[in-house]
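Attaching the record inline, Q. Sequence:
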Amino acid sequence: MTIREKAAAMKLDSTKMASKSAEVRKRALLAIIKALQTNQEEIFRANEQDLLEAAENNIPEAVVKRLKFTSQKLCDVVKGIENLVAMPDKVYETQFVRELDKGLTLVRESCPIGVIGVIFEARPDALVQIASLCIKSGNCAILKGGSETKHTNKILFSLIAQAARECGLPENCLFQAEQRDEISELLSCQESVDLLIPRGSNAFVQYIMDNTKIPVMGHADGICHIYVDKEFDIDKAIPIIIDAKMQYAAACNAVETLLIHKDAVDCLMPELNKAFQKHHIELRATTDIAKQYNSKEATDEDFETEYLDLVLSAKTVKNIDEAIVHINKYGSHHTDCVITENQETAEYFMRMVDSAGVYQNCSTRFADGFRYGFGAEVGISTGKIHARGPVGIEGLLTYKYKLYGNGQIVEDYASGKKEFHFKDYTKKE
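Structure, as predicted:
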């Protein structure tokens, strides 16, 4: 069966998927947890095969870190699914009730998007998270993971799909695309696929956007910044910066550029440079910092680069406004942080920086659906329409309007015979 044929079958099953009760979807998620735990040794063996092939193919270390699926990552994805199970069901939730006129009532209700195609990087945990979120939100999903994790993804998908179907979800609720050339066919399935979520490089995301008529949600580069204000606490700043860079350097929410107020440089840099050396972080900085700390001098290209590695660019700025201009120019509207003890400064930064996530005094690595309490995420959206930031359940739902009448016609209102009175009710009324 081709991707087009499979997508068409999923489109037909999408209404069945949406109609499944919260209890059925909950049972499916619990069955997935059991399947993953029961078959963990098989999963780990498949992952070892992927790691072996990665070594043979000289896959970069940053990618290898992503494709490892350890017992800890299994625990993390299980915890994520458990969080999803515990969360209130949002499918077909009444958002508002408005009486237009006596006997004419408008209801807005949440509902699944339908068929979602997600193309993601070589991260097996991402497959589990995405599939679980789509099930929780009542959506059918086409999943295409990075080829570097083909063995792990294959066993994970098989376990998840089987558990879902055995619990009563439709036959075509989930599909795994395994070949790279299937992506091109997927892009032409605008009749059947309602939304595409690509994850990966800027070039890849742009390619998806340029070659499909399907709506696309996602982010490109993760060029995240930390601005250190002149009123900062060094005991907070250094652990935050180090965590944001090295806790998982290959992640899209890792910091790539450090902006330092000119009055903070002399206090911050001696201790921060020691921490960089300890953790083997390469510094690329503006001339004033580079000369003093024997680092490579940063270029404009550095400020436009998502390193995905233990490399950090740094720049001295004369004030917060220069920092904000830099972030809005070079950033990717992902996640940016200010380190300051001045609350007015923090609030100004958060208002003026045009990013999905704006933080004060904490690591950019918190930009994650699991850490936000969403259970998991299908990705992080840097767009402003429909969803922004980590996309959890609510980002995979849209809404519909239901109008309940009793013989009303528009002509009565157009002629003035009747008038709307628009009365809103709470959900409980």
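The longest helix spans residues 3-19. The two ends are 49 Å apart (CA to CA).

More tomorrow.
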